[in-house]
Amino acid sequence: MEFDTLSILSLIAGTIYGLIVGIIPGAGATTGLIAIYGFIYMFPDPYLAVIFCMAVVAASTTADTYTGVLLGIPGANSAAATMVDGFPLAQQGKATYAISAAITTSTVNGLLWGIPVFLFFPYYAEIMLFFGTPELWMFTILAMATVVFVSNHYFFRGLLALAFGIFVGLIGIDPADATNRFTFGWDYLADGVQLITLVAGLFAVPEMLDGLRDSQNRAKASKNGYQQTIDGIKVVFQNKWLALRGGIIGALVGVLPGLGGAVSDWMAYGQTVATTKNPNPPFGKGNILGVIGPEGSNNAQKATSMVPTVLFGIPGASFAAILLGLFGMLDFELGTMDLLADTQFFESMTYGFLWATVLVAIIGFFITKYVTSIVNVPYKYYFPILLTIIVAACVQYTGGWEDYAMFIIATILGVSCKHFKFNRAALLIGFILAERVEALTLQTFSLYNVGDLFTRVTFDILFVTTIVVLIYGLKKGWNSKLEFV
After folding, report:
1. pLDDT tens per residue, range 99-139
2. Is 370 helix (H, G, I), strand (E, B) or coil?
3. Angle at the Cα of 205 (from 413 to 17), degrees rounded to 5?
4. What residues make up the domain containing 463?
5. Residue 164 falls within a domain, yes or no?
6. Residue 484, in any domain of the structure
7. Which of 290, 301, 325, 336 is the most exposed place for a label (fewest CB within 10 A)?
8. Which phi and psi angles does 174 have, rounded to 5°?
């Protein structure tokens, strides 16, 4: 594919937009992608929209470090681990140092993992040859087990959230007899609950409300910005193995459906703390290693999470769920063999993600000292603007009062789940996979008996992996004396 002027403009626009979204507290890739639902059709070519979307993902993932470091408010959940040591550094006047280290680590790992993921995507079609109906069913069960038993400590609440998500996902027309199912007489629900509205209510609005509540702290102005930038780059290469370990953790977590960046970042931060002897200063007090470790995982996780999203149509994270919807609107059906034959689609994904990763890093190194003044604008001034954009994206289904009512219901659900620690990722995975679980379950057990299933090698591997995930999650919770309910 030859990338012309429009492709370059789409890349630049997506990178700048993603950078802005990343800087806004509580926003991040998920919120940024939700906001573009209203104008995704404006692109003259759907492949330009793919470039734009992937650039948004890459740029916002790198840029969400800014508010975590400068304000102590992560631009997205995945930046929360970086905030632990990044914000104390900013309070010491070393914000540029912390951000430069974060950008360097994110960029290197984004490229290291993005190149093999995106460049070789068309060749992954062979993997699909090992997946018949039973294997797809077992992989779906593995995805749900992973998000319930690994990504959250509250297993019982996770199971409830998953079950409720499946219930919500089955609302609409019953494929068996074409009658309304679980609509409770509300005709609006005949086509089911809209993905964009549910994701906005579950993730975008609760994080924005947190940003509004916690927007009082500020960083000190950085001195010797140029030298801090150089020092931030140097310290990453002085601790390159730590940065690379973070990337490996992010890459592995990204392949597992539904876990998301927050899990990988906290795991990377945990291994940083565990493997550092006699840290000086202590972690949590402004140790630069506490920035390098988790920042190594975020872009790597974003890259590899596209593997289950594209190959199987199972989102690797909340942002990937939005991409499923956006690409579906552009007639790109993720998880199908037909898509894997579309080389232009994969070239557009590759171009958008990899070049935006590089471009946002270059921009970031030059604008860091200026961003401090931008993020010092009180959040209350741009919160209503961001909320208006999100609401506008969510009420395009019918444009009537029912869209607003559903948005309010989804927001109440999201805020409640976050407050009472119900697993929002599990609810979303249940919703997205509900119809697939129903169809695959009926097909699998109508065509095969249990004995036949265990004669299939790929099914056996997935089954054993699922059991390992369950045991690991339960054992981790038991050993850590974590709450199961």
Report:
1. 899 889 989 998 999 898 888 877 776 776 677 889 888 88
2. helix
3. 145
4. 5-479
5. yes
6. no
7. 336
8. -75, 120
Report yes or no on 108 lying in a domain: yes
User: Residue 322's closest CA among 45, 60, 145?
Assistant: 60
CA distances from 34 to 96, 112, 141, 393 (A): 30, 28, 27, 7
Q: Are 398 and 254 in contact (CB under 8 A)?
A: no
The reply to whether 485 falls in a domain is no
The domain tally of the chain equals 1
pTM above 0.85, yes or no: no
Alpha carbon distance 291, 79 (integer Å): 10
The pLDDT, as a whole number, for residue 214 is 59
Residue 181, sorted as left (phi over 0), alpha (psi -120 to 50) or beta, turns out to be beta
Q: How far is CA 403 from CA 35, 187, 427, 428, in A?
A: 16, 12, 20, 19
- SS3 state of residue 194: coil
Helices (H), 282-378: 289-304, 306-312, 318-329, 337-340, 343-375
Evaluate whether 207 touches 76 at the Cβ level (below 8 Å): yes
Tell me the C-alpha distance between 294 and 247, whole Å. Answer: 8
Verify cis geometry, omega within 30 degrees of 0, for the bond prior to 46: no
The tokens of 476 are what?
């981790």
